[in-house]
Design goal:
Structural class: mainly alpha
Helix content: over 70%
Distance between the termini: 71 Å
Radius of gyration: 20 Å
Oligomer: single chain
Length: 256
Amino acid sequence: MNFLNRILEFFAYFFRSKPEGYDIEKFGFTHIFLVIFAFVGAILIYVYRDKLKNSNKNILKFFVVLLFLQQVILYGWYITSGAFSIETSLPLYDCRVAIICIIYGVFFNNNKSKRIGIYLGFVGSIVALISPDLDRFIFPHYTWVSFFVGHILLLWVSCYIFFVEEIEISFKKYTEVFIFTNVLHIAVIIFNSISKSNYAFLSEPPIFKEVAERLHPITYIAIMMLMLNFSLYLVHSYFMKSRDGKLKLSHRKIEN
C-alpha cells in the first residue's frame, strides 16, 4: 500500500500545476547532453538510411504514435491542471503545427502535409533544442519530458521522412510550404495582437529580449518573418543539394 501511495504521490508531483519559476540551465550538462542525443539520433538515421528502408516499415509510425501520445498527454494536463490558456496553450507554435501535419500526413498518407511538417520540423526542432523555452517547473515534471521528447522525435521523424522515405522535394513543393507557412504566420501575428500572446515568437524572442525591446513591433515582426523564411530556404537548399548529390552518385555507379 505504501508503494502504491508513493507512485500516486509521484504522479501527482510529476503532473503538478503550480510552477516554481525554475528554468533549465541553458548549455548546462543536461541541456548539452539532450542536444547531443538528439543530433546523434538524427545522424544515425542518415547513416543507416539504406538499412532502414529495408527494415520494419512501422518504425516511422511508432515514432509518430509517440508524438501523438505526447500531444494528447500535454493537452490532457493543460485541461485537467487548469494550466490551459488562450495565450500559451493553442497549437500555433511552428513545432506543434509541424507535429500535427506529420501525424496527419503519416497516418493518412498525405505527402503535402508531411512536407510542411518536415520543413517546419527541421527548423523548429533545432531552434527549440538549442534555445529551449520550458514551462517554469523544477524537474521532474511532464512539461520537461514533453518538450524534449516532442522536439527530439520531431527532428528524428523529419530526418526519417526525408532520408529514408525520400519524400519528393522540388521548388514547386517548396513554394507550397512557403505559402502555407507565411499565411499561417500572418494569421498568428493577427491573433497575437488580439490575444496579447507570443505564438511562433512573433511578438517576443525566446532569447536576446533586451535587443528586441529596442525595436518597433513592426520592425521586429519583419525581421522574424525574414529569418523564418530564410531558414526555410536554407532547409530547402540542403534538401535539394542532398538529392542532387545522391543523383550524381547513382549516375556514376551506373556508368561504372
